[in-house]
Design goal:
Shape: elongated
Strand order of the largest sheet: 1-2
Order of helices and strands: HHHEEHHH
Number of helices: 6
Low-confidence stretches: none
Structural class: mainly alpha
Distance between the termini: 30 Å
CATH architecture of the domain at 8-88 and 129-143: Orthogonal Bundle
Oligomer: single chain
Largest sheet: 2 strands, antiparallel
Helix content: 40-55%
CATH topology of the domain at 8-88 and 129-143: Arc Repressor Mutant, subunit A
């Protein structure tokens, strides 16, 4: 079990950006992305539409069509895509959307706030260029 959970749409968006970043200058089809990520083509198609509308990805139609990054991978922080899909990143100090305990200061409050602040910092300082490098290296290692 993991404590951090983000939506499937945000996960697909982040991974899709990494796949495209790992293939600079190459048009990658939705089918190739879905196969690489072992993802549902239908759900991926919806995420790709959102990424195109958000200006993160460009699409090309036709037999040689597919998707490319709209901006260099080093120029897009993970936080930009995360917030585009999920909305503003909250660094609240309660695990629940609405407190149910009635205590003003949660016993885990500062630790949760600190953990959220560190995650937000990581997402804002890490670009898809870094993620794409790591992704390309992992793909290369599994092919050998």
């Amino acid at each position: 079990m993991t404590a951090l959970k983000i939506s499937e749409a945000a996960t697909l968006a982040i991974h899709t950006m990494a796949v495209l970043g790992a293939n600079p200058g190459k048009t990658v089809s939705a089918a190739e992305i879905a196969e690489t990520l072992k993802a549902s083509r239908d759900h991926l198609a919806k995420v790709l539409q959102r990424l195109v509308r958000g200006g993160f990805v460009e699409s090309a139609r036709g037999p040689q069509g597919g998707f490319t990054l709209a901006r260099p991978a080093d120029g897009v922080a993970l936080l930009e895509v995360y917030e585009y899909i999920e909305g503003p990143f909250a660094t609240r100090n309660c695990l629940l959307d609405e407190r149910i305990c009635g205590i003003d200061k949660c016993a885990m409050g500062e630790q949760l706030f600190d953990a959220n602040a560190k995650l937000k910092k990581f997402l804002s300082e890490t670009t898809f260029g870094v993620l794409a490098e790591s992704f390309a290296e992992n793909v290369k290692n599994t092919e050998e």
